Amino acid sequence: MMAWLRLALGNLRANRRRTGITLLSLIVGVAGLVFLWAFIDGINAQMINNMTGYVTGDLKVHARGFHNEREMNIALPEQWNLPPVVADTEGVAAAAPRLTGHALVSLADKSRAMQVTGVDPAGEKTVTRLDHSLVAGRYLQTGNEILLGAGAAGALEAEVGDELALVVQAADGSIGADRYTVIGLFETGVKRIDGQVAQIPLESAQELYALWGRVTEVAARVDDPDQLPLVIDRLQEQLQARQVEVLGWPKLMPSLVQMMDFHNAVAYIVIFVVFVVVAAGIANTILMSVIERGREFGVMMAVGTSGSRMVQLVLLETSLMALVGYALGLVLGLVVTAYFASSGLDFTAYIKAMDTMPGLSGIVYPTTSPDRWAIIGLVVIVVALLAAVVPAWIASRHTPLEAMDAHRSATNRLRRIHTEVTSDRRFLIFAQMALRSLFRNPRRSLITASATAFGLAAYLFLYGFADGFFEQMVRNSTQQLSGHVQVMAKGHDVDLAPNLRIDDVSERLKTLADEPEVQAAAPRILLKGMVANPKTSQPVELVGVAPEQERQVTELARYMVEGRYVQDDGKGIVIGRKLADELDARLNDKLVVTVQQASGDLASGAYPIDGIYRTGSDLFDSEYVFVNIAQARQLVGFAPNQASRIALRLQDRTQSTPLAERLNRELADTQLVAQDWETLLPVVVQMIEMTQIDFYLILSVVFVVVAIGVMNTMVMSVMERTRELGVMLALGTRGSQLVLTILFEALFLALLGMVAGAVLGGLIVAWLNRSGIDLSAIAGSFETIPGITDKVYPVLILDHVWLPSVLLFACSVLVALYPAKRAARLDPVEAIRHG
């Protein structure tokens, strides 16, 4: 065995160039996979770390039923004194009591529905780290103090020292209200936390919610997050005598788990494609390195080496190269990952898109784990061995003469075709020489062209998947709520203040409906508010609609699953399935809606539930409540001809931006503004833009792998023809002519690869466009993504794929420059001797 190992090492050293080229392909492929997977894992790790570190803790102890029902009266009795019991449990690092509820927070004429948590200031610091994120003021101490996120402070125009009014539904069903002084502002970088979470001292919260001495939960941090299930089991056993439930963060935040499932599903699709491209690049290089050794194999068999021994030798050499390439690629990938794990990847330009991914902030820090390395290593080694064993086995079946002269047989078989192709004398002589070279060794040509073909097919699939995903998101989002263009008072998009309104709605509707691009127009009233039943309350956006006009603009009516859509003469409300579940509400149950009027006063009304809709988006189905526009006007104090906005549906969605720009010129002298759907749905737009950045990162890795693969095979195809090139130079061929010939070869191979890749990629996208990519196994994770359903239908948009296709084609040609220039500098005598 040692003798064969020395022989394998000797063969690898004997042809350092070929060995180095093969290793380069392995190193780049492994490094790319290590970094991409670390980037994806980093996003998931950051979401978990931020949400548990700033808000929930690793686990919570509730009174049984509180988590599902969210009823304030399902609280932990004071006499149980659970915080020290939980804190003393093995595996728990710290524990703190809390009281969590919702409140309508107001300052002057500004209001915002928020999650308000009463905390023990000293204990909370040991469980979460919100106190580390202060940007102004100080942390909580005692009394009527409130700690506010920077996002919420901006929406309320609040500063340290301002006094806020909080209105809540108390545990006994009454309305609780009090004033709190802003003593500090925090900024975590996570918009959901900064804009929707506030803290007050526990004693003040107990007074506000009428829960004197009681708490809704005990939050805890564990010593080792990997041991969380064990700690939960230990706590449940210890507390089994009491009516409590112990829940870890996966059950506390199902939307986070769902988002991670969705992110992983999409990531695995992308990673699979990258795996295929990397594997193709590695196989491409290994195949070429084995096939070009036909003469060497013939000599080995001529001196008595058996076919099986030869195959074993090739596999041993390939295993050594695969192991070394994997080790070096892993080191390179870990170095790149470590750099970005320290400095981070900056996505702050797409911070609104981060709102769809709970806990994700603007800076992403990649993280990796040994199990990922093992999977990558296994794939790389298996692919390399499979790529080597087939051509080696075929070569071992030949006689020594056949192995040494296999290329001549190929030449004879294809001579007639070659003559027909090159008989037209109008071809440039260099093109004829290039075609002759390609036809002389068809296997080498096909292997080289396949690198470009796999790269383009992967590009087309990835872009088709992304564009299908985004097209579905935009189409559904605009059809469910926003329409294509909206007209509103300036500033209403930032703050749904009731004093920002359109006064002459009828006249505006008529004018807008006459626009040639407009298919339909509908008035709306939009308000921030709270919806409550005797048990619990939730923050919502109240949308007053004119039913018949609204049906022409949006299609929410077709998403009804119970009851009926808003009626012209209706007196009830329509809510989403998710909100109905959270409130444990059914048809005909009455809900109390509370909003702030333009005067700053609070107004409430009780409405029966007439209908329940389900769009499949958790965000939409839990946050929007629809009511007849006449009822909304009465509740908020609007006149009959007043509304918050006018929504437009266009004949062609692509005309939304030009129409909005033209309307803004016409509205320049008014207090109104027109916004296209891109402006109305910044979360959707920025999610698309952020995902495109992800794709650019991924496609850059694919580009490098494809380029290296093509360059490797071109270098091998040139350097293994040293004798042939030496003869050409000896017969008077100039170096520049040789360079031009090799570039023509690369051009023809790139064209062949592009055609094959376009056909393969196009067929894959066309098939999936008909059948769809079924992601129903993780359908629950789509609830946090606006407009997405459980099937994605890829589409190809020419404007999106032509540029990367051209770049890939140019890359496939230009990588031939290096081997061409090397060939042009060959010494004819030395080259002929080498052969």
From TrEMBL:
It is a multi-pass membrane protein. GO terms for biological process: lipoprotein localization to outer membrane. InterPro entries: ABC3_permease_C (IPR003838), Lipoprotein-release_system (IPR051447), MacB_PCD (IPR025857). Pfam families: FtsX, MacB_PCD. It is found in: Cell membrane. Its main location: membrane. Residues 19-237, 445-664 form the MacB-like periplasmic core domain. This is ABC transporter permease.
